[in-house]
Design a protein that fits this description.
alpha+beta; five-stranded antiparallel β-sheet; 2 domains; Alpha-Beta Plaits; SAM-dependent_MTases_sf; 31% strand; globular; ten-stranded mixed β-sheet; binds S-adenosylmethionine; Rossmann fold; Putative RNA methylase family UPF0020; transferase
Length: 345
């Protein structure tokens, strides 16, 4: 059995306070349930040389596994443990672009980018193995995408990213941001803003960018897509065809009005009611074998209610131990948890 030690990024402690190590430990444990080729055991915190690490054991991690583990949300550095010595393992992140893609935009109501990465990782690992995830090309949908934190993280991984957002200012701000970013980075791209129509009726404005890491790939048509539509999420089924997406990932409205979180729809609809109406619409858009990962405020909706809604929409809720231990405090009004469900094949 080889012992591994992971140093957690200091930023994880700022995001999750005392929950940082637990969050990342559970993320690794979820990866170990199916996405990794090899088994992972004994994930726990250990202090080495006065510094806390996450340690785990495995007898069988493949090179592909190490590449997948390189993308764990809180990872700072990864080592093999040999007695009292740590040998660095070169990490190979999937990131295709500069990390300012996920970090530049700052605004009230932004879902923290590290948490977003964790949610995307856990959702992807619940549906697909390392090979499929590392290959890029998955289609990801955030049906309440705000100013695009999930879309940006998905794009970093080489996935195609689609979002729906009801707030016009968010829609416009994200469209402007992504086009400026692509220009600033001199990435060859096409951008188009148009109206989405179904059966002759307007659904909403849409901005779509198609881009590639290199000019050559762009010319060869090997492009990635980011698309955002300004519409009520309940109309997602009019925007996208059934079974369009491999993954659906969203940080849903917290149902609170406070300084750090601005939410447009809170006054017209409570989060639980909105989810009851929206989850069946989103489920239609998920491909068989795909997964949906949602984070929400447990002060507004209980975990059992979330599970019932997902099951009623035909999905299997994942309830192995690590999935049940992601709950964490955001602030006095928000206690956040996440839930993942899979669409049967
Ligand atoms: C917790 S925020 C998600 C923020 C996003 N992850 C980000 O980082 O920008 C929830 C989002 O849901 C949006 N929203 C609320 N009700 C909606 C609806 N009915 N249809 C579409 N979006 C909605 C809000 O405007 C807000 O942007």
């Amino acid at each position: 059995m080889q012992q591994y030690a992971m140093l957690i990024a200091p930023s994880a402690n700022r995001v999750f306070a005392r929950s940082a190590v637990r969050m990342v430990a559970n993320e690794i444990a979820v990866l170990g349930l199916g996405a990794l080729d090899g088994a992972v055991e004994g994930v726990e915190e250990r202090v080495l040389g006065g510094v806390p690490y996450l340690v785990f054991r495995s007898g069988s991690l493949s090179g592909r596994d190490v590449r997948l583990l390189s993308n764990v949300s809180g990872l700072f550095a990864l080592f093999e443990v040999h007695g009292t010595m740590l040998e660095p393992i070169p990490v190979q992140r999937m990131d295709r672009y500069d990390d300012d893609l996920v970090s530049i935009l700052k605004y009230a109501g932004k879902t923290n980018e590290q948490f977003t990465k964790l949610l995307l990782n856990v959702t992807a690992a619940s549906a697909f193995g390392a090979e499929r995830i590392l290959a890029g090309g998955l289609k990801v949908f955030d049906p309440m995408c705000g100013r695009g934190t999930t879309l940006n993280q998905a794009a970093m991984y080489g996935f195609d990213a689609y979002g729906v957002e009801v707030d016009k200012r968010d829609f416009e701000a994200y469209g402007a941001f992504i086009q400026r970013w692509l220009k600033d980075k001199r990435l060859k791209h096409k951008a188009l803003t148009s109206r989405v129509k179904r059966d002759g009726r307007g659904v909403g404005q849409q901005t779509r960018v198609e881009f590639a890491v290199t000019k050559e790939l762009h010319r060869a048509g090997e492009t990635q897509v980011i698309e955002i539509v300004n519409a009520d999420t309940l109309r997602s089924g009019e925007v996208y065809r059934r079974r369009s997406f491999d993954l659906i990932v969203a940080d849903v409205p917290y149902g609170v009005q406070h300084a750090a979180v601005r939410e447009t729809r809170e006054l017209s609809r409570r989060p639980t009611e909105l989810l009851e109406a929206a989850i069946p619409v989103w489920a239609e858009l998920l491909r068989p074998g795909g997964a949906m990962g949602l984070s929400w405020n447990t002060y507004m909706t209980e975990r059992s209610e979330m599970a019932e809604m997902l099951e009623a929409a035909g999905m299997e809720v994942l309830d192995a131990a690590p999935y049940l231990d992601f709950e964490h405090r955001v602030d006095h009004a928000i206690n956040r948890d996440l839930i993942v469900a899979r669409m049967p094949r």
